[in-house]
Specification:
Layout: H1 29-43, E1 50-55, H2 57-68, E2 73-79, H3 97-102, E3 107-108, H4 111-118, H5 129-139, E4 140-142, E5 148-150, H6 154-163, E6 178-183, H7 194-199, E7 203-207, H8 215-218, H9 220-232
Parallel strand pairs: 1-2, 2-6, 6-7
Antiparallel strand pairs: 3-5, 4-5
Helix pairs in contact: 1-2, 4-5
Length: 233
């Protein structure tokens, strides 16, 4: 457990969880990083005092925040930060994940129905049962008609994928924090962990050949243990 060692905060990115969508429609990941800096300032965390754990867009956001405010992070564990090499990111509107997000089913009769559907097909079918249950319990909001709806709406998810294009590894080359990056099995994507690991000057990489991009939900105990080790070194 992290709690005996750290005061733990888990901010929701814009339009995710309990955070509202931005009024200006800005989902670029550098803006997500700016949001994180607002949280850091609100909590009174000084440069070099922040220890972080992040996954996917969360891990990338942490690194981009440090790029904006060099020296912010002290130690970090990140699982597959989504980050591109310069010149390799999709152009605006061309990320293939956008179309799928816009078509995503948002409303279910109940959390039980959502859990049954998610557990029957990848990638959620690969997740540990209790981790998936926790996700479903918190990722949905209750509507007045008794149904439940994903808190992160499909259109907002699509716009977040589109904003990914500014997450490039050249931005983080100056990060001096001690960073441990986890990498799952090769799934044919060029933006999951490796571009960040190539440029960070003080990085250690851990390979998880049996895990996918949802590794933190597939093997939460293993990854939590590795993350805690990384932050206590």
């Amino acid at each position: 457990s992290f709690l005996p060692h750290f005061t733990v905060w888990g901010p929701d990115l814009r339009a995710h969880g309990w955070s509202t969508p931005p009024a200006d429609g800005d989902y670029e990941w550098t803006s997500l990083a700016a949001d994180l800096l607002v949280v850091v300032d609100h909590l009174g965390i000084s440069a070099g005092e922040l220890d972080c754990v992040g996954h996917s867009v969360g891990a990338a956001t942490i690194l981009l925040a440090d790029a904006t405010r060099p020296g912010l992070i002290r130690r970090m564990y990140g699982y597959e930060p989504v980050m591109w090499r310069p010149g390799e990111a999709f152009e605006a509107g061309e990320n293939p994940l956008i179309a799928g997000a816009r078509k995503r089913r948002e409303v279910f009769e109940s959390r039980a129905e959502a859990l049954e559907r998610f557990s029957a097909r990848p990638p959620f079918s690969q997740c540990r049962a209790d981790a998936l249950h926790s996700y479903v319990m918190h990722a949905f909001e209750d509507l007045d008609d008794g149904t439940v709806r994903l808190r992160c709406r499909g259109q907002h998810e699509a716009e977040t994928y589109d904003g990914e294009r500014v997450s490039t590894s050249d931005r983080i080359a100056g990060c001096t924090a001690k960073v441990v990056l986890g990498k799952g099995m090769d799934q044919g994507f060029g933006n999951l962990g490796e571009p960040a690991a190539e440029v960070l000057p003080n990085v250690e990489s851990i390979s998880y050949p049996d895990l996918g991009h949802f590794g933190p939900l597939e093997a939460p105990n293993l990854l939590a243990s590795d993350a805690l080790d990384a932050l206590l070194k």
